[in-house]
TrEMBL record:
Responsible for synthesis of pseudouridine from uracil-2605 in 23S ribosomal RNA. It catalyses: uridine(2605) in 23S rRNA = pseudouridine(2605) in 23S rRNA. The lineage of its organism: Bacteria, Pseudomonadati, Pseudomonadota, Betaproteobacteria, environmental samples. Transmembrane segments: none annotated. This is Pseudouridine synthase.
Length: 262
């Protein structure tokens, strides 16, 4: 229960030093929120012991779903993730079937909800390739705001990063993650998105050496620093290595190489 080690608590109980809700505590008692615990007659604060959150960064390829089960049997990101002894991986937001890039997953539901909630202001950044080039007035409209079927939407920033031939690349940032929002914003103005890559989520950027179909676990120190979660004493802080997940097809070039070719 986060009060002391199990052995120490058992010793307190045997010695009659611990009381639970004004009666002597017994071995095997379960403590729940709202219970009053006294040690040697003094009311003490306690917290339920919880596992420190694990967080992994996954470089999602196109063609994978962010779902656990698909009726059509298509591949999902969960097929590639490390197996957990207890709990499960929770995706922080979603990327649609044809979108690639950074996907954050955690074992902590509260943390996942906090990272997704708009009030915390976790900005998303995408590299977007479209057919053609944005007209100046359309760039202005995307920054000032357009109306989609589920409400207004706008980019925080929009930067032209070049291209060749029929394709052109842009970097955009947005402060929320509605379903297919980036694609729908371009489509609302008559543009076709031919590639979409999430390159950043809040302060976390897609690691440049993390190839598609691979995941990397954040060390506990980094989880503590990024998300403001106290680091328990004695928790190992060594970073875990990147672990490649086998793929049937050969790794493809990064989007930077592709954008140079257009």
């Amino acid at each position: 229960m986060g009060l002391a080690s199990r052995r120490t608590v058992e010793e307190w109980i045997r010695a009659g030093r611990l009381r639970l809700n004004d009666r002597p505590a017994q071995l095997g008692d379960r403590v729940k929120p709202g219970d009053r615990i006294k040690l040697d007659g003094k009311l003490i604060e306690w917290r339920r012991a919880t596992a420190f959150p694990r967080v992994i960064l996954y470089h999602k390829p196109e063609g994978e779903l962010v779902t656990r089960d698909d009726p059509e049997g298509r591949p999902t990101v969960f097929d590639r993730l490390p197996v957990l002894r207890r709990g499960r991986w929770l995706a922080v937001g979603r990327l649609d079937l044809n979108t690639s890039g950074l996907l954050i997953l955690t074992t902590d539901g509260d943390l996942a909800n906090r990272l997704m909630h708009p009030r915390y202001g976790w900005e998303r950044e995408y590299a977007v390739r479209i057919l053609g080039t944005l007209a100046p007035e359309d760039q202005t409209q995307l920054l000032e705001g357009i109306v989609l079927e589920d409400g207004p939407a706008k980019f925080n920033t929009l930067v032209d990063i070049g291209g060749q031939g029929a394709n052109h690349w842009y970097r955009v940032t947005i402060g929320e993650g509605r379903n297919r929002e980036v694609r729908r914003m371009f489509e609302a103005l008559g543009y076709t998105v031919s590639r979409l890559i999430r390159v950043r989520y809040g302060p976390i950027a897609l690691p440049p050496r993390l190839k598609r179909g691979m995941w990397q676990e954040l060390p506990p120190e980094e989880v503590s620093r990024l998300f403001g979660i106290p680091l328990p004493k004695g928790l190992a802080t060594a970073a875990k290595p990147r672990i490649p997940r086998p793929r049937a097809s050969r790794p493809s070039r990064s989007y930077d190489n592709k954008k140079r070719r257009g």
